[in-house]
Specification:
- By secondary structure, the chain is an all-alpha fold.
- The chain has one domain (2-189).
- Helices cover 82% and strands 0% of the residues.
- It has 10 helices and no strands.
- The protein has helices spanning 2-16, 19-31, 39-50, 52-89, 94-101, 105-113, 119-128, 133-154, 158-163, 165-189.
């Protein structure tokens, strides 16, 4: 059954020609802004279309690009409008927004690296808070490495992870590596 699915995907990508990779890259970028699209499908398509190394690099670049565009949209265009509505209705306090803005760099990297964290939500919350560009972009570039690795090489759903605990162990190991790596980077770059 998996061979049939693999053959179908290979044939589908081959028939799309140059549009296959373009659709995969656009899909990843758009997924960072619209949560209805499945990121793992687009990463898988890129791995199949470009191979493991180039597929990884392209998926990483375009998921970072999509997340940054989403962050920028909320930071530049929507932040003031939403702040007025939130504060008027008392939905989110200033203290809550301060907690988000003051997340440690390592914590933000770990949140971004989690395979089942909704990227659009992280982008929106970071964009609405007073988080620095440097912190968000740096954590995005590091965290997405581990996320793309997971979806490209491990690539299982949340349900499969729960059924087979070995996948959860792999996720925990990836998150631990992401945390330690971000701690080392933060010592060198002093990201606040």
């Amino acid at each position: 059954m998996f061979d049939a699915i693999d053959n179908f995907i290979d044939t589908f990508i081959t028939n799309l020609g140059v549009w296959g990779p373009i659709i995969g890259c656009l899909g990843i970028t758009i997924e960072s802004m619209l949560p209805i699209l499945p990121l793992f499908v687009f990463i898988t398509l890129n791995f199949l279309a470009f191979g493991n190394i180039l597929g990884f690099v392209i998926s990483w670049i375009f998921t970072c690009l999509g997340c940054f565009l989403s962050f920028l949209l909320f930071r530049k265009k929507i932040q003031t409008w939403i702040y007025k509505r939130i504060h008027k209705k008392g939905l989110i306090s200033k203290e809550t927004m301060d907690i988000i803005a003051n997340l440690k760099f390592e914590q933000l990297v770990t949140i971004i690296a989690m395979p089942f964290t909704p990227a659009f939500l992280v982008n929106i919350v970071a964009g609405l808070s007073k988080m620095s560009y440097k912190k968000f972009i740096s954590s995005l570039l590091i965290g997405k490495i581990f996320l793309v690795y997971f979806w490209g090489f491990v690539g299982v759903s949340l349900v499969d992870s729960i059924k087979n605990p070995i996948y959860l162990v792999r996720v925990l190991i990836l998150l631990l590596i992401a945390y330690v790596f971000s701690k080392v980077i933060n010592k060198k770059l002093k990201i606040v």
